[in-house]
Design a protein that fits this description.
about 120 residues, mainly beta, about 0% helix, 4-stranded antiparallel beta sheet, single chain, 7-stranded mixed beta sheet
Length: about 120
């Protein structure tokens, strides 16, 4: 399984970006999908998650009210809409899939996409 992130780039503070995580042939309903990020010199942290069962979402406190995670099953793509971006949001953003049920134990990562928030 290959997860491919895209949509990163340079954006000014208070701007918006939408990240995409594409996985051709992947069945998102069998996995909990998450976005993580890792800033320079810091550990990787969970940003947002959407569960396979019921689509419940969870967000890091630092992004609540600004970021939205969603899935388009028809396009086999997970999105992270990022609004009101701050310089502290600068990081490499990674897509992650963790299997549930029969697929428990499976864990896949993309290679990341860089988001830089700067004026």
């Amino acid at each position: 399984v290959q997860l491919v992130e895209s949509g990163g780039g340079l954006v000014q503070p208070w701007g918006s970006l939408r990240l995409s995580c594409a996985a051709p042939g992947f069945t998102f309903s069998r996995y909990d999908m998450s976005w993580y990020r890792q800033a320079p010199g810091k550990e990787r942290e969970l940003v947002a998650q959407i569960t396979s069962a019921g689509g419940r979402t969870n967000y890091a406190d630092s992004v609540k009210g600004r970021f939205i995670i969603s899935i388009d099953n028809a396009k086999n793509t997970v999105y992270l809409q990022m609004n009101s971006l701050k310089p502290e949001d600068t990081a490499v953003y990674y897509c992650n899939a963790v299997g549930t049920g029969f697929y428990y134990g499976m864990d896949f990562w993309g290679k990341g996409t860089l988001v830089t928030v700067s004026s």
